[in-house]
């Protein structure tokens, strides 16, 4: 049998009165009269069949039951308040899903600058780990997404290519004695794989003609490009990175390129959104801004092998 709940207004009046220890202050906080607070608390006590306050001279004190109820209601009303805040924050905001490494290494900064330039626009970003980037616009709460792929997207999606993925080995400058690097030294190095299927090292080694010389199936396995780059930056081996997403470390000198060839993986980062309905203006402005502020790879002096 479902328990008949007390009136919500009575619960709220009691919770505020318990927090302040005063009907007068509770009334001021709720913008009602003191007598109204008193009536609401009396209604709740009658409903529960027990006293919640006791008078100690001119001061109100909670009974043991009142204290327990006040603690639980405080948590409950905070949960309700947080839910309402979350809805208000997302209302009228463009909801964007993006992979975690791209978010940390480029997108967060780009969106911060976008918001400064377009204060009227709000983008609600959700960063997600995805082994294979995907979004389900029918069942996920997103208006658009940035995905790494080869443009094999559904026909009812709009898509705009942002930039290509260029695979390049990275390591700390003094790893195994530092440069110069040769194919023979690479054979002795500890490989770091940013994916469990080792696909990125295999792609790079195939294109530069070293796939048969290097035991690319061996090495440390990680789930994300971010973790692989972080492991390399701590000196644990040589990782494959995305040339566009390691620029900060290359500029600081915390990472270096042991080889000057970057290999196109065949995938690119795309901004995608459903083709149904009118494209939101915030999405259009964000798209244009991102296209004007893409990562710069031309200044690295690396041979780009398509």
UniProtKB/TrEMBL annotation:
The keyword Transcription regulation applies. PANTHER family: GLYCINE CLEAVAGE SYSTEM TRANSCRIPTIONAL ACTIVATOR, HTH-TYPE TRANSCRIPTIONAL REGULATOR. Belongs to the LysR transcriptional regulatory family. This is LysR family transcriptional regulator. It comes from the Bacteria. Keywords: DNA-binding, Transcription, Transcription regulation. One of its GO terms (biological process) is positive regulation of biosynthetic process. Gene3D superfamilies: Periplasmic binding protein-like II, Winged helix-like DNA-binding domain superfamily/Winged helix DNA-binding domain. The keyword DNA-binding applies. SUPFAM superfamilies: Periplasmic binding protein-like II, Winged helix' DNA-binding domain. It comes from Stutzerimonas zhaodongensis. GO terms for molecular function: DNA-binding transcription factor activity; sequence-specific DNA binding. Residues 6-63 form the HTH lysR-type domain. InterPro entries: LysR-type_TF_proteobact-type, LysR_HTH_N, LysR_subst-bd, WH-like_DNA-bd_sf, WH_DNA-bd_sf.
């Amino acid at each position: 049998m479902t328990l008949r709940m007390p009136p919500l207004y009575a619960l709220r009046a009691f919770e505020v009165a318990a927090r302040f220890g005063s009907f007068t202050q509770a009334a001021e906080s709720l913008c009602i009269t003191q007598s109204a607070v008193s009536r609401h608390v009396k209604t709740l006590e009658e409903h529960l069949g027990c006293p919640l306050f006791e008078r100690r001279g001119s001061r109100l004190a909670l009974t043991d039951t009142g204290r327990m109820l006040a603690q639980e209601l405080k948590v409950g009303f905070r949960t309700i308040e947080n839910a309402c805040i979350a809805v208000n924050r997302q209302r009228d905001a463009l909801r964007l899903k993006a992979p975690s490494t791209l978010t940390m290494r480029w997108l967060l900064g780009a969106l911060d600058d976008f918001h400064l330039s377009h204060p009227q626009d709000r983008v609600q970003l959700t960063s997600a780990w995805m082994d294979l980037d995907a979004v389900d616009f029918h069942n996920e709460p997103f208006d658009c997404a940035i995905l790494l792929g080869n443009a094999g997207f559904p026909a009812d999606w709009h898509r705009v290519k942002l930039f290509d993925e260029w695979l390049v080995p990275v390591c700390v400058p003094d790893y195994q004695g530092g440069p110069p690097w040769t194919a023979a030294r690479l054979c002795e190095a500890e490989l770091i794989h940013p994916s469990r299927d080792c696909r990125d090292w295999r792609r790079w080694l195939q294109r530069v003609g070293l796939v048969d010389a290097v035991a690319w199936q061996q090495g440390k396995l990680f789930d994300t490009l971010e973790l692989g780059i972080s492991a390399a930056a701590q000196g644990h081996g040589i990782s494959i990175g995305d040339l566009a997403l390691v620029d900060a470390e290359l500029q600081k000198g915390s990472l270096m390129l042991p080889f000057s060839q970057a290999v196109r993986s065949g995938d690119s980062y795309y901004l995608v959104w459903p083709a149904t309905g009118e494209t939101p203006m915030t999405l259009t402005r964000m798209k244009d801004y991102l296209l004007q502020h893409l990562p710069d790879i031309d200044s690295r002096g690396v041979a780009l092998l398509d």
